[in-house]
Amino acid sequence: MPEVKAKKSLTVKIRPELLNRFNAAVKMQGLKNQFVVEQLVTEYVKKIDKAASTANDDGFYDEANIRRLERSLEHAKQGKVIVKTMEELERMADE
User: What is the pTM of this model?
Assistant: First the structure.
């Protein structure tokens, strides 16, 4: 049996003229207000989620960097690696 998800209520105050236009538009489409509001909220949340994920994107997973990472992995698999001690790396950094 499919899981039934409980619904919660949301009370929103809207200007009367906007509410009248909304009700008329929804009725003209043969839809129910609850369905339309749920769709609007879903689209808004998707937009916000996308904007947040884009804002947090540091470029690490862009296409060019993925290609570089794949080449590096391939080199490592082929044994094409350079091993340095911390001391050697520190000396290189100081130069």
Answer: 0.51
